[in-house]
Amino acid sequence: MSKKEQTQSSSEFKVKGLLVEKGVRVSHRPHMDELSSRGYGVPDGKEMLLTFYEALYLLDKQMLEIETEKGKNIDFQTLVQCYERVNENAWAGYLVYRDLRSRGYVVREGFGTKVDFRVYERGDYSKDTAKYLIISVQEGKPISIEDLTRSLTESLSLKKELVLAVINRRGETVYYSVSELTLK
Q1: Strands 73-74 and 23-26: what pairing?
Q2: In this predicted model, what pLDDT tens digit does every residue of 105-148 receive, in sequence order?
Q3: Are residues 142 and 174 in the same domain?
């Protein structure tokens, strides 16, 4: 997508959100429907809750404006700081999310102890279950073999492919497929 097309699509669709403890709340029904159809947010009563990484992505794409309850605008850096208060791996998580979204995948929140994201094959969102489970780590930060084994066992039981997303020192994401090795 060219810069011009990107600017046109973001100017056509602009959402207003309210910063809350768990992310960003959107309450305008047409915006909620549009976001949901694009694979963003989860219903929260009569409103929708965007995770911090979804809000960061949409803010970066100029598709979202965020305010506090007092009406103060929230910028990208402030939102990153809010995210880091609840998740020490916030920046790595956002970089992986942004990279996967830019590649055309729909990315949803993970589950379990270490799984950060569920990723749907292109065009499969709302038609099929997620194909991949993603664990994001920063290069140089250790991950225990027990955690990795537990996540692999969980992904195999769900018939999903486990992928380790490593953020290198330059901020690039490298993906590694994790599989079981049986020696005979």
Answers
A1: unpaired
A2: 999 998 876 889 999 888 766 677 889 999 999 999 998 999 89
A3: yes
